[in-house]
TrEMBL record:
Biased composition (Basic and acidic residues): 598-615
Domain ABC transporter: 347-590
Pfam families, A to Z: ABC_membrane (PF00664), ABC_tran (PF00005)
Gene Ontology CC, one term: plasma membrane
Cell inner membrane recorded as keyword: yes
Protein name according to UniProt: Putative ABC transporter permease/ATP-binding protein
Domain ABC transmembrane type-1 stretches: 38-316
Protein's membrane topology: Multi-pass membrane protein
Keywords carried by this UniProt record: ATP-binding, Cell inner membrane, Cell membrane, Membrane, Nucleotide-binding, Translocase, Transmembrane, Transmembrane helix, Transport
Species whose genome carries this gene: Gordonia soli NBRC 108243
Length: 622
């Protein structure tokens, strides 16, 4: 869509080109539907001819069956042909629309499946939903109705007006008398509609942003008594939008009212009957011809309204088509033409650097990119547990997401089993690398299908075994519909319960490499204990890379990697790093002295959710 800074003409051309490209698969059928509608529109004029001829016969006293029935049948055939061919045209266009939407949604799903996973972390679910649902729906009217109805709206008046001119050229001009005034008013209304719509969209976006901002922080705002100040930005945005909207729409509505009056039935009827009386009294036409021409004149406004609606629909569809074309133009995750299979479950990062694209000036980073990792070298032996620690923004999450290929490294390589992840087929990669993140995503489908997302062919018993290992089976079977319960409808889980469902999903997928964003960081004590037990089962025997938010959870990791500014500054085991009195030792002192391990006995050793030896001693791992 356009923004105030865009060139409206260039934007309109881009939307038109996008729409042309988008409709290409159904263009032939839409042309066929228009051709069929053309026949139906031509038949529309037959009833008018029949009415005039019937009137002539009656006025002339020719009332025999031989005179009347042919004309009656002409009217019946005209009405029947109009209904049949009109319905057939709409049937063709609607079937084309069904195929078009199916094709388009499949294309969107295919495209989404080929995008890097990192794109989804940068893009809100609302934007994805708008592309897959709203934008496709915007094209429905255009495909299913607009072309057919526009053809009818244009062709029907043309045939009817031709008949008016056949009756008398003066009647033809009289039927069109009010149209130029309407056209002039409508042209004045839409003279800068593209630019004004862009301003309206910008205003709505600003209001939406302030609403989200206020709602997201409403608890904090109310706590500190700053409600009035906090929603001032929303009030200002709403007032600005109201002023712009009123300034644009107010004068337009007045012009629209005058223009619409030019097509109102009373005015059209008055003009045609008054003019018809003049023509009749002058001896130019017959009264019955005035009646036929007046009926035709009354049909014209309806046709123009249909054209106006089609134009508005095309404008909306153009914006939707442009957004979809932009989506399809996004760079896809490159797939190797000759993929390799990892030979083992070890992970290596060699001289890895990565930068995010930023909207800030290029001075922030090279070519406007902000560097997140810089020359990282790291080895994760098969079956080992590696923990990433560091301050917020140090690059922990970025490094972890390079392993399942959420992004590709700018320089260097990430290898699994000796093979660069860019050379591994994505399907093989995701059977090799699994991940459990803090931000749990459960789909609005059954619990069973949520758990077996990674293994759709898993049996009922395998699903239940994974749920038992994740300590969530009892909670599921307690629901009225058990595993058939649909998330969001008859299954509502707490954060800790949702996390255990995601752990069951990872257990069932059974990937040999696991990326774990510590799942217990915000859990209550009871949920935390159950999640810890589930995680202990999950990580057993796997190569694990864990993003640690609390140092007490990774004291027995095989390797602790300390990141700072996108670089590895320290790595080793917990005791060795504490003894080294470096960055990690300072972090550990802050952790232990700051009382961050909430809910634990401070006199005992900090609990460790990934301590394999301790878990084996307690029987949590078999």
């Amino acid at each position: 869509m356009t923004t105030p800074g865009d060139d409206p003409a260039a934007s309109a051309r881009a939307e038109s080109a996008a729409l042309k490209d988008m409709l290409q698969p159904v263009r032939g059928r839409l042309r066929l539907a228009q051709g069929v509608q053309l026949i139906g529109s031509a038949a529309t004029v037959l009833p008018f001819i029949g009415i005039v001829e019937l009137g002539r016969r009656l006025l002339a006293g020719q009332t025999t069956a031989g005179d009347i029935w042919p004309i009656v049948w002409l009217v019946i055939v005209g009405l029947g042909a109009r209904a049949f061919f009109g319905a057939l045209a709409l049937g063709i266009s609607h079937f084309a629309d069904v195929d078009f939407q199916s094709h388009l949604r499949r294309r969107i799903v295919t495209k989404l499946g080929r995008l890097p996973l990192g794109w989804f972390t940068r893009t809100s679910s609302g934007e994805v939903r708008k592309s897959a649902q709203n934008d496709v729906h915007e094209l429905h009217y255009l495909v299913a109705h607009a072309d057919v109805e526009t053809t009818a709206a244009v062709v029907t008046p043309v045939f009817a007006l031709i008949y008016c001119f056949v009756l008398d050229w003066r009647l033809g001009l009289l039927a069109m008398a009010t149209l130029p005034l309407y056209a002039a008013g409508y042209a004045w209304m839409i003279r800068d509609m593209t630019e004004q719509m862009a301003r309206m969209n910008t205003g709505i976006e600003r209001i939406s942003a302030t609403i989200v901002e206020f709602v997201s922080g409403v608890a904090v705002v109310k706590t500190f008594g700053q409600v009035g100040r906090a929603h001032r930005r929303f009030i200002d945005a709403a007032d600005d939008f109201n002023d712009d909207f009123a300034g644009y729409v107010g004068p337009m509505l007045r012009i629209e009212a005058i223009a619409a009056m030019m097509l109102s039935a009373p005015l059209v009827l008055l003009v045609n009957l008054a003019g018809g009386y003049w023509f009749t009294s002058s001896g130019w036409v017959q009264p019955i011809e005035v009646v036929g021409a007046t009926l035709i004149a009354l049909v014209l406004p309806t046709s123009l309204m249909a054209i106006t609606m089609a134009l508005h629909s095309r404008q909306q569809a153009g914006g939707a088509a442009r957004r979809l074309v932009d989506l399809f133009a996004l760079p896809e995750l490159p797939v190797s033409a000759d993929p390799a299979v990892p030979q083992g479950n070890g992970v290596e990062l060699e001289d890895v650097s990565f930068s995010y694209q930023t909207t800030a000036p290029a001075s922030v980073g090279e070519n406007g990119r902000s560097k997140a990792l810089d020359g990282v070298d790291l080895v994760l032996p098969a079956g080992s547990l590696t923990a990433l620690v560091g301050e917020s923004g140090s690059g922990k999450s970025t490094l972890a997401t390079l392993v399942p290929r959420f992004h590709d490294a700018d320089t260097g390589s990430v290898r699994i089993g000796g093979v660069d992840v860019r050379e591994i087929d994505p399907e093989t990669l995701y059977r090799t690398v699994g991940f459990v993140l803090q931000d749990v995503q459960l789909l609005g489908i059954s619990i069973r299908d949520n758990i077996r997302l990674g293994r759709p062919d898993a049996t009922e018993e395998e699903v239940a075994d994974a749920a038992r290992a994740a300590r969530i089976h009892d909670r599921i079977v307690a629901l009225p519909r058990g595993y058939d319960a649909v998330i969001g409808d008859d299954a509502h889980f707490s954060g800790g319960e949702s996390q255990r469902v995601s752990i069951a999903r990872a257990l069932l997928a059974d990937t040999p490499i696991l990326v774990l964003d510590e799942a217990t960081a915000f859990a209550d004590p009871e949920s935390e204990a159950q999640i810890q037990q589930a995680i202990s089962t999950l990580i057993d025997g796997r190569t694990v890379l864990v993003i640690a938010h609390r140092l007490g959870t990774i004291t027995h990791a095989d390797n602790i990697v300390v990141l700072d500014g996108g670089r590895v500054v320290e790595q080793g085991r917990h005791d060795d790093l504490v003894a080294a009195q470096g960055t990690y030792a300072a972090m550990w002192r802050s952790y232990t002295e700051g009382g961050l391990d909430i809910g634990r006995d401070r006199t005992s050793e900090p609990a460790d959710v990934v301590d394999r030896s301790e878990l084996e001693n307690t029987g949590a791992v078999r």
